[in-house]
Fold each of these.
Amino acid sequence: MATRTSPAPRGQQRTRSKGATAKGPTTTARGKTAAARPARASGSPKDQGRTTPATRQSEATPEPRQDDRPALPVRVIRATWMSLARLTGSAVRKFGHDVHPERELRRDGSGFFLLLLALAVAAVEWWALTGIIADSVHAAAGGTFGWMALLVPFMLGIGAVRLFRYPERQRANNRIAIGELFILFAGSGIAHLVGGQPTLSEGLDALWRAGGVVGFLVAGPLTALLTAWPVGILLSVVVFLGLLIITATPFRHIPSRLRALYEHLMGQDLADARGSGDHPEDAEEHDQSYLYAGHGSTATPKPKRRKRLFGKDQSEDRPADDDDTGFVGDEAFERAVVEDEERRARESGASESGAGEGGAAVPPGVRRPTKQERAAENLKRAQGIGVPESPDHAPAVPGRPPRNAPEGSTEAIDIVPAAKALLVPSTPVQPQAPPSPIPQRTEQLQLAGDVAYTLPPSDYLPAGTPPKERSEANDAVVAALTHTLDQFNVDARVTGFSRGPTVTRYEIELAPGTKVERVTALSKNISYAVASSDVRILSPIPGKSAIGIEIPNTDRETVSLGDVLRSGNARKTDHPMVMGVGKDVEGGFVVANLAKMPHLLVAGATGAGKSSFVNSMITSILMRSTPDEVRMVMVDPKRVELTAYEGVPHLITPIITSPKKAAEALQWVVREMDTRYDDLANYGYKHIDDFNKAVRNGKVVPPEGSKRVVRPYPYLLVIVDELADLMMVAPRDVEDSIVRITQLARAAGIHLVLATQRPSVDVVTGLIKANVPSRMAFATSSVTDSRVVLDQPGAEKLIGQGDALFLPMGASKTIRVQGAWVTESEIHRVVEHVKGQLQAVYREDVAVEAPKKQIDDDIGDDLDVLLQATELVVTTQFGSTSMLQRKLRVGFAKAGRLMDLLESRGVVGPSEGSKARDVLVKPDDLAPVLAAMRGDDPPAPSAAPREPVDLVADDLASRTQAVEYYDGADSGEGDEGSSDAWNLTGR
Ligand SMILES: Nc1ncnc2c1ncn2[C@@H]1O[C@H](COP(=O)(O)OP(=O)(O)OP(=O)(O)O)[C@@H](O)[C@H]1O
């Protein structure tokens, strides 16, 4: 219309005819473009205001004159049209849930046109209006589509509504238009078939009463090729395809969509239907939901409930070391991290109910707030105005009760068992731990020899400052995140946060159809908005349909070891190897059992908090265990980190500072492990816990005649504070020992903790890594280091000073923790307490290089038979070759060779012709001779020093942790498969 009446240049005409603006060419973006076009056509730059040469040139081009504008009536008509269009548009936009497309993108004029057209066709086709105009409309609509003209108003109406409400979603609009055309064309074809397939010769009236001209053109040629039925089926398929296109439904989602539609029509919740993963492929196109579900249905997928293999987790009923089942050793499904059972129960309850899962399920009938409302609400909350607080002051999340909600509430914490690793240790923000004792075992513990031993009192580790659950800093970050999301038009919202001591994890939930990548791609903008470079994004938070954004607290808190050891998790078990790790991002206490790890690698850059962690670990052990239960070997090449513990009775050797001696100590540990294994094998147990339990129950009886008193083995914890120093001195030997220990020592109750500030591949070799399953990564200086420690990036983003990622054995995801902190004076008090009760009794052979186990070349493959020969000759005190022949069933030559070997080892004297040789070894000395032949250590009767503490084992039954002691008088006696090398209690 404007084109015909307006003398304006073409570009301007085109733009105006789109009805983008009624304010003239410079009032909107479109207007500006329109004004610039004639200038460009004549070689002028866009900016006509500047006096550049180009501008001067443009001055020659005549500007559109005032009278180039459309005539007044045209302008009046257009203005009226646009006013009506806008009015209608805003009414349609208010219908259902409000939408607010940007002003520049609106296409109200076109929408209004389609709406009028729809009304016109409806008036004629539906309400049979007559008259000249009506006849023309019928000729156009009915003549074109026949019966299908009845659908035209409906389709035009859809188009109009889309243009009013979602003009910016061009792809979706085009898709719907294409789908409608499919239906219209194929439907007209079907109408043509059903209407008796009229021919042109029957006249237009006949065509109108069938499928119109389009129906004739579509179905006519096809029926010429095929019969009517196949064509009808084919066209029906096309109609169906059109429906799929309109609703953006891939074939595989047809059942779920139908179910969703059915449930929607029946007024049921759509949560399950959406859980089947039917997301339209295009994020832009989630708006199609209005066709079948309503835009506001935002349900998150309900996780499939996993069944437990058994009715209960085995660990639930079974205290670590003291039950009646006869089974104490490693249990299936046991984890390093000690969990809170109540919470676990609550979690499974939450996941089963599915209510509020992920925090995003909006109950039917509840309208999802608009972006503006959400922003306003978050900001209000951030400012603390007018928004009701949940009891724990954490932001309320729609559809779920607040954290710290009472038992039985459907708290929105869901843990899919496989992903539990990350969330298991945390309990929802706990108030300050009650000042109850550490741990539950506070009665006097009888050590072997009737020595009473008391664990250090819990007030040696005072409570820390009460944790904050929310601070102004958190509110400011929520506001910044909301603003960033809105700024980048990401349809997502901050639904809550959980504050840990060092970082807070903010939870972001996406509207259906919004891609996760839209948030993760904003990581730099988020860093910018919250002014922190250490932003870590978890997508998703395991077990939750939400994205987690971890942002350091500007007001971080220290986690006191005392609080961790007083937490419910720590007091739940009296296992002596349980240590306080720290607090996780949700403010839950993390407690781990070193025996279950079973070996731990601690790494991080200098100053990141490794030594503090090791201190917390050792102090935890001192606070919770007696020297009978846990013995330690400490290697401290830096010489300063562990000196505070010098002299504690839990040590079996002075703290080792020389890397060379440390390498030797590791070899001793290997020997200790072998000895324990021998005992396990001899007595038929698989794990040291089983063996110890049997010993306490009197089921382990030494062979008759043996004077050995069998006692339980303590756990042996080997702590290396700087692995790199050891690896520099003897890389091969250290690696060999570590690998051997880590491969086997678990069952022997020997556990390794390796700390290093150089987590490079030459220190933490592939072999070591493969055998040390639990990892604790403090801040590393590079992503490469993080990969070496954790096999994944992340540690390089930590913020130091105890901030760590904990990856316990079997976990697939790391737990972010703030390590527990224990001060030097606290350590001093604890150490003085334990030292005041018992003096350390060191074994001297620990750091002495063991003779290499080497079988002499001349023995070769004959070791077994030589050992038998030696035993025979020494016990009978008869050095006869023919006796060897007879008893060992060997030939003369072999017996002669054995006799020569015995002579060379000083067992028998030289040959005296046909006489038997002199036997030089007395039966009492047989054992060391056999050991020497085997290349073993000779048994060392004096290896375990007896001074200065002399404990007498006589009151085993009354003790909580009974430990039997070796009767030192016969320490040198050979006793198959065992020596006193295991005697770590070393009197
Ligand atoms: N858990 C923690 N809580 C609070 N502060 C901590 C914590 N851990 C470490 N820090 C702070 O970080 C400092 C350095 O810690 P630490 O000595 O443990 O680091 P490191 O990794 O052992 O360094 P290096 O390898 O040089 O010995 C401590 O002095 C303390 O101030």
Amino acid sequence: MLRRGLRNIGDMIRLEPRPFAVGALGAMVNTAMTLFLSYIVGWVVAGIAVPAYENGEVALGTVLLGVAALLGTSIIRFSSMCARRIGAGVMMFGVQAHWRRRITRRYLALPVSWHQKHPTGTLLSNANADVEAATRPLAPLPFACGTIFMVAIAMIAFFSIDWAIALVALGMFPALFALNAIFATKMAPRAKRAQELRAEVSAVGHESFDGALVVKAMGREAAETERFSASADELRDAMIGVGRLRAAFEPAIAGLPELGVLVALLVGLARFEAGAIDLGQLVTVSFMFSVLAFPVRAIGWVLGDLPGSVVGRERVDHVLAATGDMAYGDKELPETPAPATLAFDRVAYAYPDGHEALAEVTFTVEPGTTVALVGATGSGKSTLAHLAARLIDPSGGALRLDGEDLRDLTHASLARSAALVQQIPFVFDDTVRANISLDRPGVDDDRVWDALVAAGAEKFTASLDKGLDTEVGERGTTLSGGQRQRLTLARALAGRPRLLVLDDATSAVDPKVESQILAGLKGSSESASVLVVAYRRATIALADRVVFLENGRITAQGTHVGLLETHRPYAELVTAYERAEAEREFDEENAA
Ligand SMILES: Nc1ncnc2c1ncn2[C@@H]1O[C@H](COP(=O)(O)OP(=O)(O)OP(=O)(O)O)[C@@H](O)[C@H]1O
């Protein structure tokens, strides 16, 4: 634990060497001045106070010198203390910012499958609670370094004054380290559990708040509160356990130096009486011991925070070491507005749990055409859409965009060429403009309005209070489901992709509007090739070709009319969709 803790501190010093140097230097100057003060106090007592007491008078110059020495030392002590604290703070917050950046970068580089296994609340806890725990020893670190320096100087001073007093000091420090070592060993498992529970509470809390609407709609407030309370209570108990252990050790750790002062005083008095040291030396030694007693605790603070910091660092490293990033190639597709060709060549996909979602999928989306993916629920449509946008890679076969394997393309080229719009739209807590442009070069207001028109979203955007500057709230809470979907469609279109993948992306949009949007996409001058997961007959009928999926395999493909006649399962499914749509419309009309 000690070795790993010190290695962690070493890593953090390497990350922020300058603030550490400022803090440590400040601490050393501070401690040197504190020790120097011991001599001054000794000199003031023996050279000014005692003669004044014995003779009844003292030279004014000597008094002024004493005052100036005390004042000067105090000013330097104060300034160096500021440097120590500022250095420690800058260092700690600097390291925290560094790790938070690295964690965020890692999260965003990791594949979808990794994210599916890690709750958002836990990820938040990694970036907050774990980073803070890992860096906690940095706050007292410069102080502790200064103290070690102080102890080293004090030891020299003790030995130069008297060996018996030096032995007292020599015994005190090993005892202090031994006590801390026992504390760290006992604390390690408790700190680990507490850190795990922090992540658990964060995960449960995040899920409850994220699903607040469901919780309220289903009247599950009490049950959710209970679920949260169970985790929170466990965390409370774990933290009380940590506190109890601290409470048991802290008085001993804090009391040991005080005991040292007492023993040093007794030994010092005995040595003074034996004539081994004079009065000035006795005062100096006693003062040195008493000024050491408090700073020595800083070493205890650093050591006390080590178990928690090791656990925090391990959890941070776990994220930083996570692998599975998608490797991108170095091929660039030509920058042309012409629609792209997407070819699936015997594509297979198995989820990490072994579930084979797709097999032997072969079809092509020809340039400028629209292909509708139709299939019963769970047949693999979304998986196929994710493959087309390279959110996941196939476990067999290949996908080619304009003849290039998706895995060989650069990330930028792929992002420019293909855009995926998902069924559940994600809207950032920002303005309409920012949500659509995403700060992409070339996406100016004209492009944003063109995209809004193509997505059928220009009317409602124009009717918003501040138009493009309207803030849409977290996840777009101020918009309707259909408006959010159209906004995310506009976002995809603003990038002028050459391949558009729509995973049931217009399900919340009125069917007539949906047909208009899709018909508009086909007819526009810079039309993209479109792969659309479709449920409505009108949408399917707009497609040039239909690919019909059953249990992850293509069982038929052709035109909608052709498949209706030749493939019975297809005809049954589309008829079922149509009936459901008609029933929904009937219900809506009656409700109105
Ligand atoms: N992360 C996952 N891990 C394991 N299996 C998964 C995962 N996601 C989906 N599946 C499974 O893969 C199969 C295909 O899922 P997919 O979401 O592609 O179907 P879909 O046709 O889009 O369904 P729907 O129409 O209901 O959206 C399903 O059997 C599903 O249970």
Amino acid sequence: MNLNDYGATHEQPLANGLMLARIIATSHQQYTIVTDAGRYRAQIAGRLANQTVEAVDFPTVGDWVQVRLPENADDTATIERLNPRQTVFLRKTAGRRSDAQLVAANVDWLLLCMALDANFNLRRLERYLAVAAASGARAAIVLTKADKAADLAAQLAAVAEITSDQPVLVCDATTAAGLTELTAFMQPRVTYAFLGSSGVGKTTLINPLLGHGALLTAAVREHDAHGRHTTTSRQLLVLANGSVVIDTPGMRELGLLDANVDAAFDDVKALAARCRFSDCTHQQEPGCAVRAAVSAGELDKDRLESYLQLQTEQAQNSHLRGKARENAKIERMFGGKKQMKAMMKEARKKRR
Ligand SMILES: Nc1nc2c(ncn2[C@@H]2O[C@H](COP(=O)(O)OP(=O)(O)OP(=O)(O)O)[C@@H](O)[C@H]2O)c(=O)[nH]1
Ligand SMILES: [Zn+2]
């Protein structure tokens, strides 16, 4: 296999002496990369580490990077540059802080997985759609565990209500139903990321698509700051049909950080255009076309609530994230806020 099999399509200009590589696995800033010369372990160059401010500036699975190869193939390669990302998918880390966590980069299609069993939840799907809309990647919906569906027809109709033009695929791993459609949908050298809460059946879907009796390696479980188990391993694999897949195991919740809530609610957005006030919050203002649509039974009340809640969450988190990023920069440049103030005072004195 060469790098084209991993999706290297467009011309990527290289700096002198460096080679193009794609990151296929990470763990504690130890990377596994693939190049036209084979696989290597890799580390990021000190200079690159110094330019980074927060976690999202570090290379992640799916990234295209420029590397210096070691003379001995058993030695570690050095990642010298991070190529600009075509798409990026972030989520808020668990807990109250609004640190960004990179889920994957350069994904062409997000496959939003949701189980048709008791965990079926349209509000969660709306959340995933809002994040997908901001990522730059296209989205498709993969409904799993069709054998456990309470009312498949009604569930499909409800999904159609809240989606626009996203393809919807239905799978049942117990009979392998839907797997043919899924593999036919997935194209060679295109990158897909399976997203969905822990236990929706992502691994069960991917394993038969790997071929050659290969199995996804079990995710590494670690303790996070709250003593809970979290799965940290991400990996990029090439399936038997040639498509490139990023597995994102162990997601408990998908905190909004970089979302486009309006894009995922174009029906609400269209109604809002007819509200009397252009900055209507659709809570109690007179002449609200959105609430009127709810009263008339044209818009689901739960969907409006979901929209308002996601809007609030997104606004709060992006505000907090802006602050966190600013603080990280001050820390890097001055060593802290106190030091920065002292330096500014000093500079003012000199000017006088
Ligand atoms: N009844 C039924 N069970 C399924 C189906 N697909 C998966 N399961 C079961 O659901 C459980 C979770 O499946 P996984 O594939 O491990 O889920 P996952 O999404 O990879 O979970 P994480 O790795 O934690 O993110 C397993 O016990 C599977 O056997 C299905 O189509 N029908
Ligand atoms: Zn309104």
Amino acid sequence: MSVLVTGGGGYIGSHMVWHLTDAGEDVVVLDNLTTGFDWAIAPEASLVQGDCGDLDLLDRVIGENGVDAIVHFAGSIVVPESVADPLGYYLNNTVKSRTLIEAAVRGGVGNFIFSSTAAVYGTPETYPVSEDAPLAPESPYGRSKLMTEMMLADASAAHGFTYAALRYFNVAGADPKGRTGQSTRGATHLIKVACEAALGKRDSLTVFGTDYPTDDGTGVRDYIHVSDLVAAHGDALRYLRDGGANLVANCGYGHGFSVLEVVETVKRVSGDDFRVDLGPRRPGDPAAIVASRERISRELGWQPRFDDLDAIVASALKWEESLVRRNQR
Ligand SMILES: NC(=O)c1ccc[n+]([C@@H]2O[C@H](COP(=O)([O-])OP(=O)(O)OC[C@H]3O[C@@H](n4cnc5c(N)ncnc54)[C@H](O)[C@@H]3O)[C@@H](O)[C@H]2O)c1
Ligand SMILES: O=c1ccn([C@@H]2O[C@H](COP(=O)(O)OP(=O)(O)O[C@H]3O[C@H](CO)[C@H](O)[C@H](O)[C@H]3O)[C@@H](O)[C@H]2O)c(=O)[nH]1
């Protein structure tokens, strides 16, 4: 019995691989290393460098490793990039997920966990947003993920495997033991960008939009520590293996912070007063989005351990400092 983690060399996937190997699971990673890194993968896991769209390779990996569960992180993740390159996003996120689902069915893999996103809701009408809210993604990225959720529902009904589609809100922070973190080159995520600015890796940070209908006019997001997120995946894996029914669940804490609040936190925790420019809105960005976590707590008994923006930022900064040291070597 082993777990196939696609995208296990990436930010969230590398935390998941550590979480699984810490729990004594056999893990095989499939990653094409476009944005991920082989060095980020826990040494107990094995890496197959390849693409999720390669059905022959998937058949072989699933068969040779006795895979009973797939955790599917591989994908393209930048909202504005998806606006500029929608077909690239539909290929990497939707078409290749279809191939992976086909391989799972052919290989008799019973359990499937999928990285979905809060972007499937667009700008919700109510806060916090529950899983039953209208699905109205505002970007090709969100639509590419929603289509995969739909394929999973249809393929599960036809072929009998079970799945959990976990809709992540904004993932941030790093492994508290310092073993992995967000290493993405040219990252666009707010906390990562702010940490890079605090450490002098960037000259400044630009706030994208100051005229949103929020308290201070900047975008509001629900930032979840990556360790709490991967723990939710561990809970979901146990639930599915124990015979739990298909589950679609939000992964967030249930409260949000504005861009300016995040910037202030990074400045305070780092002690660096980096330059901040105010700019126009970024294409595809909703104004505010905050999770209801009622369902995931009820169905999986998920209990967050790092629900604290200062702690999230501190762990992200610590990782960023380790990247600076790594690049200096
Ligand atoms: N970071 C967030 O805030 C966030 C929020 C919601 C959802 N997600 C989802 O979580 C997942 C992981 O995101 P991340 O932040 O770790 O991104 P990431 O870019 O660090 O990781 C993605 C990994 O997938 C690999 N990959 C990409 N396309 C592949 C393919 N076709 N075949 C094989 N490997 C491929 C990359 O090399 C990389 O290692 C994504 O599916 C993303 O949509 C992320
Ligand atoms: O340099 C920056 C970067 C971001 N922002 C703002 O900060 C907020 C968060 O932006 P991120 O880029 O960090 O994250 P997104 O909300 O765009 O998207 C993230 O969360 C989504 C779910 O909410 C998706 O899942 C997606 O994969 C993931 O990238 C937004 O208001 C954005 O406009 C800035 O002002 N300046």
